[in-house]
Hints:
The protein has 20 helices and two strands. The chain is mostly helical.
Amino acid sequence: MIYLEQLRERYQLIVGYVGIILIGVGIALLLPLLILPVYQSEVNQIFYFLIPSILAIMSGLLMRRSKKYANEETLTLHEGGVIVVLSWLLTVVISGLPFILSGQLNFTQAMFEAVSGWTTTGLSVVDVTKTPNTFLLWRSIMQLFGGAGLAVVMLSAIIGPHGLGLYNAEGRSDKLLPHVAKSTKLIMMIYMSYVTTGVILYILAGMPWFDSINHSIAALSTGGFSTVTGSIGEYDSLAIELITIVLMFLGTINFAAHFILLKGQVKNFFKVGEIRFMFLLLTLAIPIIIFVSMIPLYESISKSIRVGLFETISALSTTGFSTVGYGDWNSFGVFILIIFMIIGGGAGSTAGGMKQYRVYIMIKSLIWNIKSYFLPQRSVRQEYVNRPEGKYYVSKDHVFEIGTFTTIYFIVYAIGVLILLAHGYNLQDSMFEFASSLGTVGLSVGITSPSAPVMVLWTEIVGMMLGRLEFFVIFFAGIKIFKDLRLISKNRA
């Protein structure tokens, strides 16, 4: 009975924290209304955001009342996972309500758009030419907070140094500072300063101010939502493409690595293993994809270089911006993009995918194993990699955990591809589209659309959620909830 009482108190704490997040989401829903003085013709959209906002804030306040405040409450990884999973599910439903209330999207489409926003995927089922600016801005706001980490941003200042379980559950393994709240505040300072700089540069390059805000947020959050049908290619501007490339690079780099760079430690920045691995991948892939896929397709060498550079970086960073369509690309070019979407960006960044760090460790582990065959039988070596916080000695358990994650990732990927194949899409398109969903990339070959089958959209929704929150967090949270409910039901019986 004592354990059950403790369990009840822990869930009161969890529900209370989820309530605080809902209050934050309710406030975020009001932000698109700030542009109404400029776009006065859209004043009739106010209630579509006001109603979900009030619902979220009132629900959050009721849930918050159950929280027992304690300055020394420490969240475990499993408890942080439960908070993250519950808050994301509720947030997605509430965030889709404006689209439903306005009649723009049905339930499945609205959930798809909300999940795509909060997971910073960028796949979309809306027609941007007919969508009001308030809704376009709302999509970008979802990507802004989703990229930084929904739960971490909303709760770090409240939980303070005791919320490490929540911090890890949101995929933040590398702290910039010893204090979680200070780390998150620093992340947001870096994040918002980059966004602001991006907006200014876009405006100077000739992009309209509203498009500049949305594209700067989408590029840095590696989200990829655009306000125009042709994405970045709509502007046909080298300057805009270069600005976007820089922002995508910044978005895909570990925030702890940003901290090193901002401190002026350039040599230490380029010592980080996954940074070196990222540049190696791009250095090898970009010339090959330009020579094999772009030059035969485009008459101009400069056009081939521009497209090859932009699309490859967009895929690896999991941003999903594009300058061209992929209907006339050869299979080699499409295959490279699929591989890069699966690999994804840096750990502890806004990017998705398996993460470059995991792939880097697997490759290093293979090299270490090969070397071990040529060493004396009794020799002992302790292998390490350079991470932003310094040398990290890699244990066998760490390699095993990465191997397990990779296995689960490819099993889920295979299942998603099979579901798309069952709906009549060819293998290449199915592999591309679900790699984009699971990697939270946003590039598309046309499968994702308002007319896509419901099952296809829900398959992609599940893929985006699993790709953003990562499998272990969802599995741990699900197992904990199941065990706790089972224990409660047994004691009641």
